[in-house]
Amino acid sequence: MCKTNEAPGPDGFQPDLEHFIRRGYLVIPSTTLPEVNEAIRSKAEAIANIGPEATVLLGDDCLPAIPELMNVLEAAPLQAAMKAVLGEDYLLHGHRHLHLSSLQEQMWHKDSYWGFRRMRHHRPRWCMMLYYPQETTLEMGPTHVLAGTQYWTVDTEGWRQGEDILADSTGDVSMFVEGSSAERQQKLNEAEQQLLGPSSSRVAALAEDVSLTVPAGSCVLMHFDLFHRAGFRAKEDAPTRFMFKFQFIRTRDPAVVPSPPGDFRYPWPESPHRLSSLLASKMELEADDGSAANPEDFCKRRRQFRHCDESPDVHIADEARSAWEELGPVLADVREWLQGLPHPCETCPESSEEASPEVEKGLEVLRAAGAGLGSDEDMERSHDEVQLVAAAYKLGRSVDRTWLALLCALTGGSEAVARAAAYGLAAAGPRATPALLPLLKHATLRVRILAVFALGESARPSHDALAVIEEAISAAPPWSMETANLLQALSCLSARARALGETGLCQRCLEIVLPFLLPSSGHNLVCENACLVALQAGELTGEMGKMVRHALDRIADRSADPYSVCFATEILRRQTWPERPMLDERSELLEPEEGPPQSLCSGHLRVTGKSLLMENLLQLRQGT
């Protein structure tokens, strides 16, 4: 079932946005000098040779330990791909890690948000980048990706494991796969069956086990929510595979197109390795003069855009076409969002005609699975994750009122159905906002969290919407995961307001999060999401901007949460006001005067100022 990596484009390892949308990853060729790759590999090996805990102690300090990594991050092909997927102002997140292959084999999983759970975005807001300083072969234990699974997930309510890990047929959930080679492969196959459901043959080509066997210096840009795993070294004396993992965040929504354009081509950035794309070639829709002003003709062209033929440059297995057609609304939603195109119902008036057969089919799936007409077990036997997600998107993007059925699925369905309904409501666009806002006061926590996720993805920012979210934040426990989810949605609205040029609404978002911009005594997602709102709001001007800058300055100086410090420092760096004083080189632990209680933090303390890397490595060498 496993196969080695194939190039997504005709020129070999050429990045392609359509490949990323469909398969969830891009392999980007190296432009780094061989001697730089070797220097990075050599330093990684030296760190690993110190002891088994060396990479743990290294933690997020990869860049100060190996400054040559900046050559990789600044390479033109990687930056061009990042800008195409995440936008011009993308952010390098503070978390990064050096991973080594071992004799243990991992199970398929999606990374957690540093131990925390939340709804996963289908639209590319977060990405990982995997860098391999050496040529990676099968015997070294390459990274594996389950290509095409970024839009599917598993039920997680009722257990606290950080990552979303696939279970085998016995229901066992473990990060590592034990047993003989045949037994391990059997468990991996069973886990894929658990994800794909009874119709796994229909989507087998979509969920393909791809081993990332790549040349030295290659980078892999990956959707944050793609299922992946670490392979294992074939022999104990096989060379070690080193891999550096970085994370990147989108900081603003794609610019919204104010009126229907005559050209749907993606605005690819210029670079020495210009990215080839399906959207830049086969998706160009030529319009006759004046056709863009005709709403009926524009709707027709929209339908052509959503159901265009695949490019011969993209290697598409014939058996996958039917599944991709079913997922067409999901893929179209991501494409159109990246283009900044308005929602279909903003350009095509809502119809009172009967629903199309495709929409009726989606409606029937959710009626049977999610409207309280059967147990969770009945649903799982009848409908897999792909069918539920596809049905929800079909309803959400329909131009009639059948999308309202998603509200019943959200409030009355099982976890899987309610989750799919939330994605469908996000795809329903701004028209769903009036129906979603009251759900922020629903008695059930799941409904509140899913509703605010859909709002963050779909709502057009307004003072009324922000007021309801602020009220929900006030009603939630102040440092809870519910508050973190509310602030995450607010960050999406802040990014959208900035893209729309709504500076007043950006200021309102800052006002809402100001009480949460406090130094923390440990890793705290509420503080980090509050910083993310401030980052996506853009320029910090006026009296409110001044207060936010002072709060961020205090976080940068005093917080023990490394990721809040990362956000705060980057926000301050991006402002046009005079530079702040340099941080002193204190090495003692700083306890904040106020902030969230320690019990709500992860307990991971950070020494601010200088890096602890050399001290940690020295302790390892001395055996202390």
UniProtKB/TrEMBL annotation:
Superkingdom, taxonomy of origin: Eukaryota
Name of the protein this chain belongs to: Phytanoyl-CoA dioxygenase
Annotated organism of origin: Effrenium voratum
